[in-house]
């Protein structure tokens, strides 16, 4: 469930326009943009005008019929998402629902300087989106209820996307209060030997902040799902500094129970970030044991696809990565995201050159979620595919290399040195189990040449070819490798590799 659906149609369309041009820097003609955005030309032109007038970081220019996006230095597409979250009344309402300081719609409208009618309209969209994600809007005060892990995870994503910077900025926190939370988290990580990853540290900090708001407003994490021991707490001075912050800002004294509640990601085993913690979870958490055993099967199936190169440690680590992304959800829950769809974008862009290998991974994921009747929503499926592909650094070439070698003939009208240069670049740039052969035979007449060509799986040529069977794969290209020709060559290798696999 992606919460971009709470946005207005115009905002969503302009966001998609920038996304399309951001990830395709060569640009698009207007007819292709009209097809992607499903709008008329006057609307497209008006959107471009508004973007150029209102968004300094992103400017759209037209040159020779092609629209391209100009992006300021040191700016990423995350800046666009952050601006939308900051300025969107729908997401301003969502943030206020965390604080629970508005008893009714009139109070909420006054706080956000909106009309009551506009607030009601936005709140209705928010309510519908929350319900799709398994959360519920409640009144007096206006608040969100539902599965506590999902609600806290939802707000973590919200603040991460709203901030879009390495600096940590959270509402209503003074520097010393933020520092107290940060120091507590850092010391907790160090004392318990958790992996020192920046994003993990940041995730814990943001979850402590969100959790304190939830605790302040009476939404404790279910105590029966939290460990009572197994982790070392920070030193008394660090503990007291955080206690001062929790009392000042949230009116919540810092007890051991509150610490476990704030660090629910760790104490519930929702995120396991050390070998010792994994051993504890596998020893006494029955839900974790079951999910780990089931996901281990998926990891082994993926390992088979990539040639069985993972050792036992690699299999266990990859399975842990899978659980870290799904454990906090119910088996029949909805996958929650805010505006970013970076993982889907990765798969979409990778599919341009690796469609068949990615489809094979998706097939084993579909079989897995169907077999165990869990996490069957499409967003979960694509998330599994992404996690598996990125857990193994060379997964895409490994998926291709398992098949019989593809033999490709290069026939050109280039000089021998030029032809060798072209063949070398194809070998370096394309991935898979293939070889490029240059035509070095002396044959009589055209038929002899065609007969020789048919000894290979495909032909790459710099000239036109006639007389070959219609189903014989041929790529016609120029004297150098372009992005377009590389995509064609990679897709050819993928398709022939799959064909060879099915023939085995």
TrEMBL record:
Domain of life: Bacteria
TM annotation in the entry: none
Mga helix-turn-helix domain segment(s): 75-159
Protein keywords: Transcription, Transcription regulation
InterPro entries tied to this protein: BglG_antiterminators, Mga_HTH
UniProt keyword Transcription regulation present: yes
PANTHER family hit by this protein: CRYPTIC BETA-GLUCOSIDE BGL OPERON ANTITERMINATOR, TRANSCRIPTIONAL REGULATOR MTLR
Designated name of the protein: Helix-turn-helix domain-containing protein
Lineage, uppermost ranks: Bacteria, Bacillati, Bacillota, Bacilli, Lactobacillales
């Amino acid at each position: 469930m992606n919460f971009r659906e709470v946005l207005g149609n115009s905002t969503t369309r302009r966001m998609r326009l920038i996304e399309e041009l951001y990830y395709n820097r060569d640009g698009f003609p207007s007819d292709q943009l009209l097809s992607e955005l499903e709008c008329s030309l006057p609307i497209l032109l008006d959107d471009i005008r508004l973007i150029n007038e209102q968004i300094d970081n992103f400017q759209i220019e037209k040159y020779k019929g092609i629209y391209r996006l100009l992006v300021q230095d040191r700016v990423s597409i995350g800046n666009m998402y952050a601006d939308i979250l900051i300025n969107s009344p729908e997401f301003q309402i969502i943030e206020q629902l965390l604080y629970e300081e508005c008893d009714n719609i009139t109070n909420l409208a006054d706080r956000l300087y909106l009309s009551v009618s506009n607030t009601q309209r936005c709140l209705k969209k928010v309510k519908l989106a929350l319900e799709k994600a398994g959360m519920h809007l409640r009144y007096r005060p206006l608040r969100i209820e539902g599965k506590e892990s999902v609600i806290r995870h939802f707000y973590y994503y919200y603040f991460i996307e709203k901030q879009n910077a390495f600096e940590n900025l959270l509402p209503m926190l003074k520097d010393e209060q933020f520092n107290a939370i940060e120091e507590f988290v850092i010391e907790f990580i160090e004392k318990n030997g958790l992996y020192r990853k920046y994003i993990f540290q940041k995730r814990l900090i943001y979850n402590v902040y969100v959790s304190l708001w939830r605790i302040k407003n009476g939404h404790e994490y279910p105590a029966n799902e939290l460990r009572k021991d197994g982790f070392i707490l920070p030193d008394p001075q660090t503990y007291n500094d955080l206690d001062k912050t929790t009392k000042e800002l949230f009116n919540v004294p810092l007890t051991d129970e509150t610490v476990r509640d704030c660090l629910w990601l760790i104490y519930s085993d929702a995120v396991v970030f050390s070998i010792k913690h994994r051993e504890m979870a596998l020893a006494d958490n029955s839900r974790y044991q079951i999910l780990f055993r089931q996901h281990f099967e998926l990891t082994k199936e993926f390992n088979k696809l990539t040639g069985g190169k993972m050792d036992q440690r690699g299999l266990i680590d990859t399975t842990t990565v899978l659980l870290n992304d799904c454990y906090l959800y119910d088996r029949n829950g909805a996958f929650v995201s805010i505006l970013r769809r970076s993982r889907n974008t990765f798969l979409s862009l990778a599919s341009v050159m690796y469609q068949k290998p990615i489809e094979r991974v998706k097939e084993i994921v579909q079989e897995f979620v169907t077999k165990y009747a869990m996490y069957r929503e499409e967003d979960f499926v694509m998330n599994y595919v992404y996690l598996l592909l990125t857990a193994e650094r060379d997964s895409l070439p490994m998926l291709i290399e398992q098949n019989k070698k593809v033999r490709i003939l290069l026939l050109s009208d280039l000089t021998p040195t030029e032809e060798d240069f072209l063949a070398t670049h194809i070998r370096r740039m394309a991935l898979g189990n293939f070889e490029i052969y240059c035509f070095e035979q002396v044959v009589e007449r055209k038929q002899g040449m065609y007969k020789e060509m048919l000894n290979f799986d495909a032909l790459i040529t710099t000239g036109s070819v006639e007389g070959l069977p219609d189903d014989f794969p041929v790529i016609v290209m120029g004297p150098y490798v372009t992005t377009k020709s590389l995509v064609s060559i990679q897709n050819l290798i993928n398709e022939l590799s799959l064909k060879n696999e099915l023939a085995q």
